[in-house]
Amino acid sequence: MVQKNKKSSRAPKINAPAAPKRRGRPRAYHPEVALGKALDLFRQGGFAATSLDDLSAATGMNRPSLYGAFGDKRELYIKSYQRYRDDARAATIDIFREEMPIRKRLARIYGVALDIYLSGSSGPRGCFTVMTAASEAVADPDIRAMVLEGLSQLDKAFASCFRRAKDNGELSASADPTALAQLASATIHTIAIRARAGIPRQELEAIVNGAIDVMLGK
Prior knowledge:
This protein is an all-alpha fold. It is built from nine helices and no strands. Helix 1 crosses helix 2 and helix 5 runs antiparallel to helix 9. The radius of gyration is 28 Å and the shape is elongated.
């Protein structure tokens, strides 16, 4: 007699579904590092010339990750500009606040500014405000408000310096702190443009020293 095979009582084996592929930001994602990379690109090429592919390659984040972390390209640009302003303020705030002769104060402020404007692995990048944000401000009211706020803050910071210098007898009684502050700010802007154009630091420092002499009446 032929014995029939018994059916197995074991349930058929079902392969577990494959785990979905991870999308979005990598595990090594660090917001401040990525923002710094984006800032470098925008300073070098401006808004229009910097593509999402450029930003993705520089930050190591794909497009969904960039959008998820920073919003669209415009929002990332604005966040980068704010980061630039915060960094510049942090680099100079103590110089504006500490007690020191006005000539020394101005020289130190311009020295830090030149450090910022001449930095860049592929060449001097100048000032974010002057070299790119001012152009975008023409059509974008939010960026325009940031630019105007930054200019106003710089003027006020310089005016405070000249006011103290006048009170300390370092300036003549007829000196106008507000007018001197605008001249000091204008000097910041001109060395930013010239730095981006490739003018050597030694020549930029000569411009700074001449401007300080004019401001201090010497």
